[in-house]
Description:
This protein is mainly alpha-helical.
Amino acid sequence: DRIADEIALGKFNAETGQYYDLLETHKFTCLREFEHLASLKTGGLYGAAAALGAVLGDEKEDNTDRVRNAGISIGTAFQLMDDLLDWGGDENLVGKPLRIDKREGGKTVFDVADPRGVYSRVLKCESEALARLDSIDGRSFQGLKAILSEIDTLFDRVMLKGKLEQLKQKV
């Protein structure tokens, strides 16, 4: 059954990502490794949610694959933006402790990449998601596209106080 398959795939990806997060992150040496981790954990969950919507909407299997991959890209962009939030956010505005990994001696994406590089990858993930959604015959998927358009706005205006605009000018 396609629904059970999508749930199992999302669960597997999220669990695999959590494994790498807990046991392997200290070995990471480049931004691509952190991006892959984000694509498994957060991307896997977003991908499963998007694919389930496609399955329930009775989409063809190849369209479901495109929607799943767009969801993975959206989740990856979201996670990398969350990392940027952890780097430059204000705890009072965010409402949660920030920079915990760094305080506890853990390795973060910013040990191997600068914020401009991370933001550049966010833009790439967003672009990939839009391209995947646009490749589906005659469907608009406005809900998923709306999420993409709000990621930058939400993080910058609410939590990064304009720091993202500075990064955009440098990318």
